């Protein structure tokens, strides 16, 4: 039988009995979350003192697990769990490894719909409280919004970081995060790996890009602080990432080990301000980066494994005593120099508290256990990290009540007030960069007939369809005639010919562009369409730098993402139902002369 989320009445009964029983078993009062800091630490240390070494090792791990339920996943998910984790389901994972946290992914089949997510979260907490030392788990995910979003519709999807950076409103950034935090908490997800605190000073940065608020360190710092306040006010632990700053690299740490060649002075000026702001704002957790910064650590170890960076800079220089979590230990950036058995041990020695998603939990878990048994890691060092993790769990009220309910989901997730707020916030983000002959807004034309072509990149979770269809649908809802034709991110000659033929008789062609490079055939598409005499409106649906390579377009806008939220906002701007208010949060350089700025930070047109 498929596990369902706990109904309110049963949840109340279970919370009163199971939580009280768990508290009695470990000598903790249910009011732990409200205890003064010093008193709380005494109670938490008593918990730690009663834990076995194996339980202690487990508390510093955050693992993936496959399946929609904690005890009865689909057979395909059981097979994946057995192959990768040596267990059948989340309950067995908790019983075997005593993990302190679980991370949700779409590809792990954890996030199908809100009630299922809440049921999975409740099942995980029930399994945790059945253990010899019953400690609630910290359930986490990457819900940055924009192009990185694990929980999709019907949850509320907010604009991503660079879109919020373009709007420039700290109040909107805080509001978006607070709503997002409330919805995650209602699903039982209490740690969010957001906001991104990287300063995107490199246009070639393929791993961060629009996930960053922008290129101005102080502006990014203000937005980060606002979102920390929003998320944590909404009931989840915020996580600023990726320390010490992933903004100036053209390499992707998922696949290789990037180097940041900033001097110490450049690091202090460019990379550090958002993290300082996060610490001042009381950030609950900070995620490490798998990058090398020789100016901070001449050994050229990845920051995740660097004692000078994590303990020297983060702990000692910034005075941060919250939870430090690694980026995924399955990424190649952290695996290129050391084996999977050494990485978790070195991370803990560097100052990490949570080891996220190791490729082999068995190898990593046993490596940490052996390091403590052999004396390479002291048990006291392990206790330091466990105390930080338990403090966070207590702060979030998980010892008091780790559960959620159907009722909480229904009254919080994707409710009309949140959806209206998302649209209001998104209306301030779209940036108009070019508007030759005052082509826009299209409301100047009578019932315009629009062809929508262009890129249909793989959509983030929760979008309702290919971006061209979503955008055409949004224009249709606004009273226009709109037809969609996907030409892809690399259109060939036949597809370009098809688009040119389809443009005949249209009033306007809207082209969704995606990371246009010097050799991209998207440039040919725009050029051929412009040659027909039909005005071309280009909408950059990822990085705004596309505008430098599209001189034939009559109008160019930056949407910063291809999610429904941001596409619909761009459609309202084009249609004249909203004014373009966004301002570039990054500079755009000339395509033929990268040393020359074409559009500076703060540039943007309006009606």
Automatic annotation (TrEMBL):
<dbReference type="InterPro" id="IPR036881">
    <property type="entry name" value="Glyco_hydro_3_C_sf"/>
</dbReference>
<dbReference type="InterPro" id="IPR001764">
    <property type="entry name" value="Glyco_hydro_3_N"/>
</dbReference>
<keyword id="KW-0326">Glycosidase</keyword>
<comment type="similarity">
    <text>Belongs to the glycosyl hydrolase 3 family.</text>
</comment>
<feature type="signal peptide">
    <location>
        <begin position="1"/>
        <end position="33"/>
    </location>
</feature>
<dbReference type="InterPro" id="IPR017853">
    <property type="entry name" value="GH"/>
</dbReference>
<feature type="domain" description="Glycoside hydrolase family 3 N-terminal">
    <location>
        <begin position="54"/>
        <end position="392"/>
    </location>
</feature>
<feature type="domain" description="Glycoside hydrolase family 3 C-terminal">
    <location>
        <begin position="431"/>
        <end position="607"/>
    </location>
</feature>
<dbReference type="GO" id="GO:0005975">
    <property type="term" value="P:carbohydrate metabolic process"/>
</dbReference>
<dbReference type="InterPro" id="IPR006311">
    <property type="entry name" value="TAT_signal"/>
</dbReference>
<dbReference type="GO" id="GO:0004563">
    <property type="term" value="F:beta-N-acetylhexosaminidase activity"/>
</dbReference>
<dbReference type="Pfam" id="PF00933">
    <property type="entry name" value="Glyco_hydro_3"/>
</dbReference>
<dbReference type="InterPro" id="IPR019800">
    <property type="entry name" value="Glyco_hydro_3_AS"/>
</dbReference>
<keyword id="KW-0378">Hydrolase</keyword>
<keyword id="KW-0732">Signal</keyword>
<dbReference type="InterPro" id="IPR002772">
    <property type="entry name" value="Glyco_hydro_3_C"/>
</dbReference>
<dbReference type="GO" id="GO:0009254">
    <property type="term" value="P:peptidoglycan turnover"/>
</dbReference>
<dbReference type="InterPro" id="IPR036962">
    <property type="entry name" value="Glyco_hydro_3_N_sf"/>
</dbReference>
<dbReference type="Pfam" id="PF01915">
    <property type="entry name" value="Glyco_hydro_3_C"/>
</dbReference>
<dbReference type="InterPro" id="IPR050226">
    <property type="entry name" value="NagZ_Beta-hexosaminidase"/>
</dbReference>
<protein>
    <recommendedName>
        <fullName>beta-N-acetylhexosaminidase</fullName>
        <ecNumber>3.2.1.52</ecNumber>
    </recommendedName>
</protein>
């Amino acid at each position: 039988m498929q596990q369902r989320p706990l109904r309110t009445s049963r949840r109340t009964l279970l919370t009163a009995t199971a939580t009280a029983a768990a508290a009695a078993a470990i000598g903790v009062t249910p009011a732990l979350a409200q205890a003064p800091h010093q008193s709380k630490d005494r109670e938490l240390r008593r918990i730690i003192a009663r834990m076995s070494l194996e339980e202690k090792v487990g508390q510093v791990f955050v693992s993936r697990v496959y399946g929609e339920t904690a005890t009865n996943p689909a057979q395909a998910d059981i097979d994946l769990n057995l192959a990768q984790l040596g267990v059948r389901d989340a309950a067995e994972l908790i019983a075997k490894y005593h993990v302190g946290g679980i991370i949700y992914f779409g590809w792990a089949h954890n996030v199908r719909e809100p009630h299922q997510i809440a049921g999975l979260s409740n099942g995980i907490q029930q399994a945790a409280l059945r253990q010899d030392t019953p400690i609630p788990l910290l359930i986490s995910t990457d819900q940055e919004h924009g192009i990185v979003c694990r929980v999709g519709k019907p949850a509320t999807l907010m604009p991503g970081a660079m879109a919020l950076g373009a709007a420039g409103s700290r109040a909107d950034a805080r509001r978006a995060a607070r709503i997002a935090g409330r919805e995650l908490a209602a699903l039982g997800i209490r740690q969010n790996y957001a906001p991104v605190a990287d300063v995107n000073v490199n246009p070639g940065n393929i791993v961060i890009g629009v996930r960053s608020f922008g290129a101005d360190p102080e502006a990014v710092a203000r937005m980060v602080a606002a979102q920390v306040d929003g998320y944590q006010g909404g009931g989840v632990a915020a996580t600023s990432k990726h320390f010490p700053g992933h903004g100036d690299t053209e390499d992707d740490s998922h696949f290789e080990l990037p180097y940041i060649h900033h001097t110490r002075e450049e690091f202090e000026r460019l990379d550090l301000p958002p993290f300082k702001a996060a610490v001042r704002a009381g950030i609950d957790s900070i995620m490490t980066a798998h990058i090398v910064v020789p100016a901070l650590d001449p050994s050229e170890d990845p920051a995740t494994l660097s004692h000078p960076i994590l303990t020297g800079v983060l702990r000692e220089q910034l005075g941060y005593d919250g939870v430090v979590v690694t980026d995924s230990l399955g990424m190649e950036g952290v695996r290129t120099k050391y084996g999977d058995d050494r990485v978790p041990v070195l991370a803990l020695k560097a100052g990490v508290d949570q080891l996220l998603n190791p490729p082999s939990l068995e190898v990593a878990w046993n490596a940490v256990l052996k390091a403590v048994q052999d004396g390479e890691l002291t048990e006291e060092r392990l206790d330091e990290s466990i105390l930080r993790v338990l403090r966070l769990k207590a702060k979030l009220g998980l010892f008091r009540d780790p559960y959620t309910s159907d009722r909480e989901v229904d009254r919080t997730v994707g409710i009309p007030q949140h959806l209206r707020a998302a649209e209001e916030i998104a209306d301030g983000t779209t940036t108009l960069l070019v508007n030759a002959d005052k082509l826009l807004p299209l409301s100047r034309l009578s019932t315009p007939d629009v062809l929508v072509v262009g890129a249909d990149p793989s959509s983030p979770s929760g979008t309702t369809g290919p971006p061209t269809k979503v955008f055409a649908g949004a224009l249709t809802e606004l009273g226009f005639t709109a037809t969609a034709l996907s030409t892809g991110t690399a259109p060939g000659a036949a597809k370009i010919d098809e688009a040119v033929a389809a443009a005949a008789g249209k009033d306007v062609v809207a082209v969704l562009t995606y990371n246009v490079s010097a050799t991209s055939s998207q440039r040919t598409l725009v050029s051929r369409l412009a040659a027909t005499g039909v005005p071309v409106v280009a909408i950059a649906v990822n990085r705004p730098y596309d505008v430098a390579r599209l001189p034939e377009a009559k109008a160019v806008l930056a949407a910063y993402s291809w999610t429904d939220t941001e596409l619909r906002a761009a459609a309202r701007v084009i249609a004249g139902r909203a004014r373009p208010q966004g301002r570039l949060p990054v500079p755009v350089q000339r395509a033929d002369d990268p040393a020359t700025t074409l559009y500076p930070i703060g540039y943007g047109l309006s009606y």
